[in-house]
UniProtKB/TrEMBL annotation:
InterPro entries: Rab-GAP-TBC_dom, Rab-GAP_TBC_sf. SUPFAM superfamilies: Ypt/Rab-GAP domain of gyp1p. Pfam families: RabGAP-TBC. The lineage of its organism: Eukaryota, Metazoa, Chordata, Craniata, Vertebrata. It comes from Mustela putorius furo. Residues 42-95 form the Rab-GAP TBC domain. This is TBC1 domain family, member 24.
Length: 97
């Protein structure tokens, strides 16, 4: 079913703290739809790799009906290079989904 409202950057800012909590970025679990695939780094530093994990968790929270999407970590990692911040990077794949 189509959504009437697509999560945007402001949604990310609201939910990231609730979802991630006090976990360190590197210890965050990956969502089930990633299917235990390795998250590509594409020359991201450790902070960027952690941001990819946070963004994926927030996407999983907003799209619980997505059950299999192993390419999404690569898409998010690439988009992070071209985004001004994590919130914008979250918004772009949400619009695709």
């Amino acid at each position: 079913p189509c959504r009437t409202v697509t999560p945007d950057a402001s949604v990310y800012s609201d939910i990231v703290g609730k979802i991630v909590g006090k976990h360190s970025d590197s210890s965050l679990p990956l969502p089930e739809f990633v299917d235990n695939t390795q998250v590509p780094s594409y020359c991201l530093n450790p902070r960027g790799e952690g941001a990819v994990r946070k963004i994926l968790l927030c996407i999983a929270n907003q799209f619980p009906d997505v059950s299999f999407c192993p390419a999404l970590p690569a898409v998010v990692a690439l988009l992070l290079h071209y985004s001004t911040d994590e919130a914008q990077c979250f918004e772009n794949p949400c619009r695709i989904l």
